[in-house]
Each structure stands twice: as structure tokens, then as C-alpha cells.
């Protein structure tokens, strides 16, 4: 019976697939019955017919392109380690196997040179060699540990990368990395196969396969401040958003930045296996413990592992049973058996966080309004006044990012019935997918809504005696499916701004020459000269939200302004006035200062004013009070703010005698109380 060219082998004993081990230091290159996914790139093997015939075969691992062979002359372990097939039966390195069918679907493989059957070997849980392939006996195993089901790889269905709802799908059957096998393990910096990388989204949310929770930044607990913990219940959270930055060194490696405090994942100095969000800048030197590089390794179509490059260990949900339970820990170079190191990747930019109180305008220029038609609560594009009480809606975002929308006029939630959208649901849970919608951004302020029960987009439709009513029955975002979103807010006030300086960072620091001047002494005696300098100090400040969508509403805001002074961040100046969220406010000030210097006889001394220019990111929470179009006032406390500022500090005078061998003297002055230039 002819074997398929490409096969997957499933153990009859434990129902796991045979896979190549590409990570562990001791069993690197071994073959082990531990794979859960039939389409894993580690589970694919090629059956190559032997040149000498007789039904014998060589078996090649498709991941590292190497043939099955004994580990060494003194071992019976079967590994994927031979660069070329060896058909001389007198050599221990012989790669020939004899396939022996048990029935139409199952098979045994006998190592020709040994005469022993390749068998799942039971070493006991906790032993790293447990379930690995071992040719230890010429007798059949009583428990069928030497029997495998043959699966034809080419009969499996594969799909390219795409996004379904908010889950990233990765090309199945394709590895995210590749590295050559050797009996002595390669270091964690081994070169990757540039053709087998996967492109991660820029912004991600990570959901644990083990406990179903999202990875959250811990900000409240002082002892655990900065830790990363799989404890979040909501995908739309400022603590769950991370930015994936490609490493400058390439090779598919990444730096991962927590978007709440804008700091990078790094080992914790006090306990070097905990992974925390504490590095102000990326560090790509793998010889340093502070290296921030991670290697993303896809497990299957939707899940991934991250390996810390400098350690060579996988980041894993760690089970401790204490306050650190479920925190991120890089303690092992072996993939976790319970998949505590495996995460589902969710594309943050596939999530759209709508404002709480909104109206929707259709492509016909009319607002979607609540109307009773034929006795049913329809939604019709029929009002030209945003102040109409029938056009208001309240948005409720669920844990997975989908939304439920409630008509203010009817006081009930939208529901698909059968494809018309009625505002008639009293359900308080999110279990009915007829009442769930997925918002998709089309353009600035323009979205589309997809109903999650039939996966169709909502559009303006005229049929069955209805005119311009909302209906979920189209598979594409047509002109009629585009909805312009407007907030029902007349005025907005931002107050009680609370900056979290413990989570702030300073970065992009550089020394600038702010001004130059000359002090000249044309006499034969030392002289004291006052040098006047003038420079322009520029600052910028931006307040933004990392989660909520503001849609251009200007707010009245009164708050202190963080500034960098003496190498740390202080709240010094005050800003008061109207401000549009996310807009950068730039200012410049001409400053005059004087410096007194003693100049030797017949000499010119050059005076320079130096300063450090730096950027800072400071997370903050704030209170927001909105006055709606109906006169109602809504107050809320939100913790998704990020302030970004740029200013100069650490002003210093530097003097140097002009000549062939100038002598430099530097005088440091503390910045003034406003974080600006030096005191005169």
C-alpha cells in the first residue's frame, strides 16, 4: 500500500500528533507525540522512497528539512537530525524505515538498521523525554504505543491570513520561524528563515488560551506595579493594549510596548524572570539582561507564543496561587504542556470604540430615527434635525468589543427581525447575537455596522412598503451601508485630571546648543565680561485618549501641565481653555539671559548655552461632564488619557578659550521654576 508523500502521524495511544521539538535545549530536534493541531508546521513529514526499493522509506521533517535518524550510536532515540539520507544498513546513522500496516488506516515504522519499532516512549509526566519517539524494542508494544494513524497532509484544507471579527488568522501550515537543527542546541539568536515570518498587527490584545483572560497592565498595587497579568475581562481596555514594534535588527524580532504607560516589556531586575512593562527605551543588545527583544512564534492559525530572545525562555501565564498568580513569567525554554504560554492575537485596530451617546446619519443626509411603522418599532432615515428626540441612541460595548445599541426614544435595544432592525429588545445580556453589532471604521466619523447573527451589514433599504429603513442584508459596505456618527453633546468639560507619574517615561533625549556668544578682553589684565544670550524655547503638549473616540468635540479643560525638569517629570504650569482632544498645542518663547565670565588678557572666550531636549509620556485619568442635546448632564470618570509633551531642561553654560588648545569649563544651573531656561 502506497503511503502519501506528506503525512501527519497521530498516536493511537494518546491521540496526539507527532511533532518536531524546536525550542527545548535538551530535547531540541527530538520527535514527540504532543501536538494538538493537525495543521501545525511541526507535524508535517515527507515520506521519501528509498533508492534501494523493497518498500523502505526515508522520513524527512518538513520543518527543518532533516531526516529521521538515531540520536547517536549509543542511543535509541529517533530525532530529525540527518542532513542526507543514509541507506547503508551497517551504519548506525542509517535513515531507512520499514512501514508495516496494521490495518487500512494505521501503521508501524521499524528502524531497519536496529530492527526495532519506533514507539511513543512513556517516561512519566514531568520527564522532558516523555512521549518522545524511541526505537527500543523489536517486539510490538502491548498498548499500541508504536501504532500511528496516517493522515494525508495534502488532504487538509489551508487558508491564507485574514481577520474574522477581531481574531487574526495566520497562514496555516507555515512556520513563523526556522532554525537549523544540531545535536548541540543553537543559541537563541540563530538566524530565522526570512520567507516564513508572519506580520503581526501594529496594536494587539493578548488573550490567554489557558484561562480566557486578557493580558492587563497592573497599575494600582504598589508591590506589583508594572506587572503584566492575565486577569482582564474586557478586550476594550486601556490596560490591555500593546504596540508591536519591529526590531531594528530585523529577523522578525519585536519590541512590545504597553500603550497605557508607553513602556516596553523587559525582565524585572529584582526577579529576572518576571516580564514587566518598565523599560523607557527598547534595548536590542542580547548580551544585556535588559534586552527587550521577543521572538513571535505562531502555534496555529490564531495563536502565538512569545520567546524572550536574551533568555531563550517562553513568556507564560505563571500559576503561583498567590498575588502573582497569572502574571507573565519567562521561566522555561520548553513550551508549556497546558498551553499557558499560548495567546490568541486580537488586532486592536479591528476594534472600534464608539462614543456613548450618538446619532447616525445615512447617505441620504437624514438621521436614523425611531418610527412606528405598521405597528413595529422601525429605524428610518427620516429626520433632518439632530435635536429630534427620535434620533438619539446609547451605545453599550461588550467584553469582546461588539456593541448593543439602545434607542433613546423607544427605550429598547436594536434587534434583527428577520433582517429589519427593530428597537424592541428588553434583553439585558449579550447572549442574543441578533442584538449584537460589530462596528467597522470606514472613514473619519464614518462606520459600518455588521449584525453578528447573520454577519450582514446594515444599510438603508426601501422594500416591502418600507422606505429608507435599516436592514441587515448586505455582504459588502455599499454606499447605503455607510453611517456617519455624531455625538449628541453640546458641551464637554474635562476636570480632575490625575497624572500617574509613577507610570511616566522620558525618552528621545538629546543635547542642543541653544545660543552662542563671545566675551572679548582686549586689555593686558584679566577682565570680567557679561555676555548676553538670546534663544527661543519651544514646547509642545498633547492630551489624548488611548481607547475612547472623541469625534472632534471641543472640551473646556483646566489642568496642570507635566514638564521635564532636572531629569524627572513635575506638574508645574497650568493650561486652561478650550481644547480639541488629540490636537498638539505648540508654543515658543524668546528668552534673554546673561552670563558673567572672567576673560584672560588679550583673549576671546566663547560662551555656549546647552540644554537637553526630551519627550515625556504621562498616563492620566480624568472626569468628563457632557451636556447632551436634550439638556441631560452625564458625568463619568475615565482612565485612558495619555499626555505627551516636549520641552528643554538641564540648561548649562559652557565656556571655551578660543585658541589652538581651548580649555573648556562647564557651569550647570538648575532650571527655573517653570522648567525652562537658567536663572539669570
Automatic annotation (TrEMBL):
InterPro entries: Aerolysin-like_C, Agglutinin, Agglutinin_dom_sf, Natterin_C
Superkingdom, taxonomy of origin: Eukaryota
Keywords assigned by UniProt, alphabetized: Disulfide bond
CDD domains for the chain: beta-trefoil_FSCN-like, PFM_HFR-2-like
Keyword Disulfide bond: yes
The Agglutinin domain, residue ranges: 1-152, 198-347, 352-487
Keyword Disulfide bond: yes
Pfam families: Aerolysin, Agglutinin
Entry similarity comment: Belongs to the aerolysin family.
Stated name of the protein: Agglutinin domain-containing protein
Organism for this UniProt entry: Nyssa sinensis
Amino acid at each position: 500500500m502506497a503511503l502519501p508523500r506528506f503525512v501527519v502521524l497521530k498516536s493511537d495511544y494518546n491521540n496526539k500528533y507527532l511533532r518536531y521539538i524546536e525550542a527545548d535545549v535538551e530535547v531540541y530536534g527530538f520527535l514527540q507525540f504532543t501536538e494538538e493541531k493537525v495543521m501545525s508546521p511541526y507535524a508535517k513529514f515527507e515520506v521519501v522512497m528509498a533508492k534501494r526499493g523493497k518498500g523502505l522509506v526515508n522520513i524527512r521533517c518538513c520543518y527543518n528539512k532533516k531526516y529521521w535518524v538515531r540520536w547517536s550510536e549509543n542511543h535509541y532515540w529517533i530525532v530529525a537530525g540527518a542532513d542526507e539520507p543514509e541507506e547503508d544498513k551497517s551504519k548506525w546513522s542509517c535513515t531507512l524505515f520499514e512501514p508495516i500496516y496494521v490495518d487500512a488506516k494505521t501503521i508501524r515504522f521499524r528502524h531497519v538498521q536496529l530492527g526495532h519499532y519506533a514507539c511513543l516512549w512513556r517516561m512519566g509526566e514531568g520527564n522532558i523525554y516523555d512521549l518522545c519517539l524511541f526505537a527500543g524494542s523489536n517486539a510490538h508494544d502491548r498498548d499500541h504505543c508504536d501504532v500511528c494513524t496516517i493522515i494525508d497532509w495534502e488532504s487538509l484544507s489551508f487558508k491564507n491570513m485574514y481577520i474574522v471579527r477581531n481574531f487574526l488568522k495566520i497562514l496555516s501550515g507555515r512556520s513563523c520561524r526556522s532554525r537549523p537543527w544540531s545535536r548541540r542546541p543553537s543559541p537563541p539568536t540563530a538566524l530565522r528563515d526570512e520567507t516564513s515570518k508572519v506580520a503581526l498587527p501594529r496594536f494587539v490584545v493578548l488573550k490567554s488560551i489557558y484561562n480566557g483572560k486578557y493580558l492587563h497592565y497592573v497599575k494600582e498595587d504598589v508591590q506589583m506595579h508594572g506587572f503584566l497579568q492575565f486577569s482582564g475581562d474586557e478586550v476594550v481596555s486601556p490596560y490591555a493594549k500593546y504596540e508591536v514594534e519591529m526590531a531594528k535588527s530585523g529577523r522578525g524580532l519585536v519590541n512590545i510596548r504597553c500603550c497605557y504607560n508607553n513602556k516596553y516589556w523587559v525582565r524585572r531586575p529584582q526577579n529576572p524572570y518576571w516580564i514587566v512593562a518598565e523599560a523607557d527605551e527598547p534595548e536590542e543588545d542580547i548580551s544585556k539582561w535588559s534586552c527587550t527583544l521577543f521572538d513571535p512564534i505562531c502555534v496555529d492559525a490564531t495563536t502565538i507564543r512569545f520567546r524572550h530572545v536574551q533568555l531563550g525562555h517562553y513568556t507564560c501565564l505563571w500559576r503561583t496561587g498567590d498575588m502573582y498568580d497569572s502574571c507573565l513569567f519567562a521561566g522555561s525554554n520548553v513550551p508549556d504542556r497546558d498551553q499557558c504560554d499560548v495567546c490568541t492575537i486580537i488586532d486592536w485596530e479591528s476594534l472600534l470604540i464608539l462614543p456613548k451617546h450618538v446619532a447616525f446619519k445615512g447617505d441620504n443626509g437624514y438621521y436614523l430615527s425611531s418610527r412606528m411603522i405598521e405597528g413595529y418599532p422601525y429605524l428610518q432615515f427620516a429626520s433632518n434635525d439632530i435635536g429630534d428626540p427620535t434620533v438619539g441612541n446609547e451605545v453599550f460595548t461588550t467584553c469582546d468589543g461588539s456593541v448593543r445599541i439602545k434607542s433613546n426614544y423607544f427605550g429598547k435595544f436594536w434587534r434583527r427581525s428577520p433582517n429589519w432592525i427593530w428597537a424592541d429588545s428588553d434583553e439585558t445580556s449579550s447572549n442574543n447575537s441578533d442584538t449584537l453589532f460589530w462596528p467597522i471604521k470606514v472613514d473619519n466619523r464614518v462606520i459600518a455596522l455588521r449584525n453578528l447573527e447573520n454577519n450582514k451589514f446594515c444599510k438603508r433599504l426601501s422594500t416591502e412598503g418600507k422606505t429608507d429603513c435599516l436592514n441587515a442584508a448586505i455582504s459588502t459596505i455599499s454606499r447605503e451601508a455607510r453611517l456617519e456618527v455624531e455625538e449628541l453633546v453640546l458641551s464637554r468639560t474635562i476636570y480632575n485630571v490625575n497624572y500617574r507619574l509613577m507610570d511616566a517615561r522620558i525618552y528621545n533625549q538629546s543635547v542642543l546648543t541653544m545660543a552662542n556668544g563671545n566675551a572679548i578682553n582686549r586689555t593686558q589684565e584679566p577682565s570680567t565680561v557679561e555676555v548676553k544670550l538670546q534663544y527661543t524655547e519651544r514646547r509642545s503638549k498633547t492630551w489624548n485618549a488611548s481607547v475612547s473616540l472623541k469625534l472632534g468635540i471641543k472640551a473646556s479643560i483646566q489642568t496642570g501641565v507635566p514638564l521635564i525638569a532636572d531629569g524627572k517629570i513635575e506638574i508645574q504650569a497650568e493650561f486652561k481653555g478650550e481644547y480639541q482632544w488629540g490636537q498638539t498645542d505648540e508654543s515658543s518663547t524668546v528668552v534673554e539671559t546673561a552670563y558673567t565670565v572672567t576673560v584672560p588678557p588679550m583673549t576671546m572666550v566663547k560662551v555656549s548655552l546647552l540644554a537637553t531636549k526630551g519627550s515625556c509620556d504621562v498616563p492620566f485619568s480624568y472626569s468628563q461632564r457632557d451636556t447632551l442635546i436634550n439638556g441631560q448632564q452625564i458625568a463619568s470618570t475615565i482612565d485612558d488619557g495619555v499626555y505627551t509633551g516636549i520641552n528643554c531642561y538641564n540648561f548649562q553654560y559652557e565656556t571655551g578659550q578660543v585658541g589652538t588648545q581651548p580649555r573648556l569649563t562647564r557651569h550647570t544651573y538648575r532650571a527655573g521654576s517653570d522648567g525652562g531656561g537658567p536663572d539669570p
